[in-house]
Amino acid sequence: QKEVEQNSGPLSVPEGAIASLNCTYSDRGSQSFFWYRQYSGKSPELIMFIYSNGDKEDGRFTAQLNKASQYVSLLIRDSQPSDSATYLCAVNEAHDMRFGAGTRLTVKP
Amino acid sequence: EPEVTQTPSHQVTQMGQEVILRCVPISNHLYFYWYRQILGQKVEFLVSFYNNEISEKSEIFDDQFSVERPDGSNFTLKIRSTKLEDSAMYFCASRRSGGAFYSYNEQFFGPGTRLTVL
C-alpha cells in the first residue's frame, strides 16, 4: 500500500513568517512530487512540483526533496493571510497520484 | 488560460439511481483522471484513462463505476447504482504528457462535482 503522510496540523504562523510543511512517502520508487493548495470547498490548485533531490524555488515557495529519506517539504516565505488553506502533498506514479491528508495552514494577520 | 471543466457542479440523487458526471479536459491533454474527496477527508484516486482505456484503477473503483470518453472532448464517470457512501466531491483532472520523468507531468483539476446521495 503506497502511503503519503502529512502532519494534519493545524499549523498557525504569523503574517510574514516562514511556514514549513512536511510530507513523507512510502514508495521508494516514487519519482515526482507535487504540492497542491486547496481552499475549503474548492479543487486542488498546483503550487509546485519537484523531481530531483534538493531545493526548487518559485517566488515565495521552496520545495525540498530528499529521496533517500523519502521526504518532501514546502516552505512558504513571507506568509500572507491569503496563504491560509490546506496544503496537499501528492506523489505521482506512472498512472496514478496519491495524496496525503493535507496540512491546514492558518496565517494570522 | 485553458482549464478543466465539470458539470454539473452539484448533483443530488436517490440511493440506487445511476449518475453520470461529466468533464471536459484541457484540449491537448492525453491523460485523464477521476478522484473523489469525501467531506473532511483526503483526495482519493479512482481511475486513470489513456488512449481510450483504463490505465489504472484503485480499490474504490469497483464494478459500480465506469468511465468513458464518448467523443473527442468529454470524459465521463458513471456510477451505476449509487450508495449513501458515494456522497463526495468528484474531481476530474487531466495531464498533458506521461511518465514520471517527462515534463508537463502536472495534473490540472476541474472545479469538482458535489454528489449528494439521499
Please give the structural blueprint.
The complex is a heterodimer of chains A (109) and B (118).
Chain A: E1 4-6, E2 11-14, E3 19-25, E4 32-38, E5 45-50, E6 54-58, E7 61-66, E8 71-76, E9 85-92, E10 97-99, E11 103-108
Parallel strand pairs in A: 2-11
Antiparallel strand pairs in A: 1-3, 3-8, 4-5, 4-9, 6-7, 7-8, 9-10, 9-11
Chain B: E1 5-7, E2 10-13, E3 19-24, E4 31-37, E5 44-50, E6 53-57, E7 65-68, E8 75-79, E9 88-95, E10 107-109, E11 113-117
Parallel strand pairs in B: 2-11
Antiparallel strand pairs in B: 1-3, 3-8, 4-5, 4-9, 5-6, 7-8, 9-10, 9-11
Description:
The complex is a heterodimer of chains A (109) and B (118). With 109 residues, chain A is mainly β. Chain A is built from no helices and eleven strands. Chain B is mostly beta strands and 118 residues long. Helices cover 0% and strands 48% of the residues of chain B. Chain B is globular and about 35 Å long. The termini of chain B are far apart. The model of chain B has no long low-confidence stretch (mean pLDDT 91). Chains A and B meet through strand 4, strand 5, strand 9 and strand 10 of A and strand 4, strand 5 and strand 10 of B.
